[in-house]
Design goal:
It contains 13 helices and 10 strands. Helix 2 packs across helix 7, helix 8 crosses helix 11 and helix 12 crosses helix 13. The strands form 2 sheets. Strands 1-2-10-7-8-9 form a 6-stranded mixed beta sheet. Strands 5-4-3-6 form a 4-stranded parallel beta sheet, sandwiched between helices. With 322 residues, it is of the alpha/beta class. The protein has 2 domains: 222 residues, Rossmann fold, CATH 3.40.50.1100; 90 residues, 3-Layer(aba) Sandwich (Rossmann fold), CATH 3.40.50. Helices cover 44% and strands 15% of the residues.
Length: 322
């Protein structure tokens, strides 16, 4: 996490990979908006939202999905993915747009609104297993048998580089709107593919901070242990931030380029969802609101004059549950 050390170490995904991915997927993704908020700060900070929940498929996952399908050879058997929901929606929609067959595996824990969105693409859908890890095992077996291209939701260069385009876009658009800098960005984390890409883009130039639910903390556990480890998963955000283990590539990037790791309680995540709906008319799923939960709960306290970015990364939720 040392900035000077981070600048010298070659990471599995570099800014050049992300810039190439951004050019590759630009015609297929939405440039999502940034807004300055009216959130009060006793320390005189400025707080900005990046509204990635308005992305195609309702989350940042579209970036990695398109980068995989546009940079890798897709066989006649098509593509396959395992997902808690959002990655599956993104892969299914990307495959449909590009004309490929897709088969998606999701666990029983997946939210109905996400399962319905996957099914609406017309892809083949298999629902089974209690947790994401169960769906992943079934997906890997299918890929081995069929030869379908497996689009990993976390730990592949194409996935991480595609998701890193969010940071490049954010930086470019922030400046274009007349704001001179971003000092710190809070990112909700499941398996870590998103924060790995964003940290690989910004490295020492912006502090990128991981925010995980207390009941689902695989990245913090890996950073503390010095290597990825299995963790129990029990959180309101488990269908999007419920990875049991951080990816190896994710860990290699995070140990050098993620500035800090924060945990938030489920109650803070719920409160963040309600604040977004009440004050901004923004509907966020629990995982999408986790980063904001760190601010309103005081787990992250902005510094005097800090320009703080809060990523709202997913909006696939039944509004009646908020």
């Amino acid at each position: 996490m040392n900035a000077e050390l981070s600048d010298r170490i070659k990471l599995p995904v570099e800014p050049s990979d992300i810039a190439s991915a951004h050019e590759r997927i630009g015609a297929h993704i939405r440039r999502t908006p940034i807004m300055e908020t009216a959130l009060a700060s006793a320390r005189g900070a400025r707080i900005f939202f990046k509204l990635e929940l308005t992305q195609h498929a309702g989350s940042f996952k579209s970036r990695g999905a398109f980068n995989n399908l546009l940079s890798r050879k897709v066989p006649a058997s098509g593509v396959t993915a395992a997902s808690g929901g959002n990655h599956g929606i993104a892969v299914a929609q990307a495959a449909k747009r590009l004309g490929y067959r897709a088969r998606i595996f999701v666990p029983e824990i997946s939210a109905k609104v996400k399962v319905d969105a996957i099914r609406a693409t017309g892809c083949e859908l298999t629902v089974g297993g209690a947790r994401y890890a169960d769906a992943q095992l079934s997906c890997e077996a299918y890929a081995s048998e069929s030869g379908a291209l497996l689009v990993h939701p976390i730990d592949s260069v194409a996935t991480i580089a595609g998701r890193g385009t969010l940071a490049k876009e954010w930086e470019d658009d922030h400046r274009a709107l007349g704001w001179d800098r971003v000092d710190t960005v809070l990112v909700g984390v499941g398996g870590g593919g998103l924060i790995a890409g964003m940290a690989a883009w910004w490295r020492e130039r912006v502090k990128v901070i991981s925010v995980e639910p207390e009941g689902s903390r695989c990245l913090q556990a890996a950073l503390l242990a010095g290597h990825p480890v299995d963790v129990p998963v029990n959180s309101i955000a488990a269908d999007s931030l419920g990875a049991r283990r951080a990816g190896d590539l994710v860990f290699q990037i995070a140990r050098h380029a993620v500035a800090d790791s924060i945990l938030v309680a489920d109650d803070a995540i719920k409160e963040a969802q309600q604040l977004l709906l009440r004050d901004y008319r923004i509907i966020s799923e629990p995982g999408g609101a986790a980063a904001l939960g760190a601010v309103i709960s005081g787990r992250y306290k902005p510094q005097l004059g800090e320009h703080l970015g809060v990523l709202l990364c997913g909006g696939n939720v039944d509004p009646t549950t908020i």
